[in-house]
């Protein structure tokens, strides 16, 4: 892996680890100011989404770091592209139309997929 991968994937992993941890440990009332959409999905789904984000963050970093199944890094990044595509749809179907962060995260995850598949 190259330096560009570690910079982009590291920042993406930090973001998703933080966001996932918030979704797992905080209540709806605590999340509502940051995430207006939390009332639209069941609490167990919100917790599961947080767990997926934490596991995806680990998937970006651990496989290339250990050299075990490095293809998992590109799979994790592709998973984040799909996750953000769904997030954009959720934002656009609700009253919260702020998707700038989601578009930026989609692009960053796509760049991470590309960097992970480079020799």
Automatic annotation (TrEMBL):
Report if keyword Lipid metabolism is assigned.
no
Q: State whether keyword Cell inner membrane applies.
A: no
Q: Which InterPro entries match?
A: DoxX
Q: Which Pfam families match?
A: DoxX_2
Specify the protein name. Answer: Membrane protein
Alphabetized UniProt keyword annotations = Membrane, Transmembrane, Transmembrane helix
Q: Quote the subcellular location field of this record.
A: Membrane
Topologically, how does it sit relative to the membrane?
A: Multi-pass membrane protein
Q: Which organism is it from?
A: Streptomyces djakartensis
